[in-house]
Design goal:
The protein has no helices and 10 strands. The chain is mostly beta strands. A 6-stranded mixed β-sheet has the order 2-10-9-4-5-6, with no helix packed on it. A 4-stranded antiparallel β-sheet has the order 1-3-8-7, with no helix packed on it. A hairpin with a 4-residue loop joins strand 7 and strand 8. The termini are far apart.
């Protein structure tokens, strides 16, 4: 059974940093493009950042460009999201998934709360 487990969220002040991790189990994801997504209260889930299977290509939502960095370690079957200069509008539950995302791969996510 495939599982994606997100960790690393928490409460941080505006301007602070967090590093999220997404550990995959049940299969190897080294051949898959992966992404981070987030869902704020009352809003739809949105794309945040993506990375190709080789790490050669990355992409970001305009709202996080220059502040967030996605990376991966295929040997550890893990994807990371380094978040710097956090803003209150970054408050959301953050999820990882393949790109395009698969409905059966959504995990519980990790809550990120940024206070002003």
């Amino acid at each position: 059974q495939v599982q994606l487990v997100e960790t690393g969220g928490g409460l941080v002040q505006a301007g602070g940093s967090l590093r999220l991790s997404c550990a995959a189990s049940g299969r190897t994801f080294s051949n898959y493009n992966m992404g981070w997504f987030r869902q704020a209260p009352g809003k739809e889930r949105e794309f945040v950042a993506g990375i190709s299977w080789s790490s050669y290509t990355t992409s970001y939502a305009d709202s996080v460009k220059g502040r967030f960095t996605i990376s991966r370690d295929n040997a550890k079957n893990t994807v990371y999201l380094q978040m710097n200069s956090l803003k209150p509008e970054d408050t959301a539950v953050y999820y990882c998934n393949t790109r395009p995302p698969r409905d059966d791969y959504w995990g519980q996510g990790t809550q990120v709360t940024v206070s002003s």
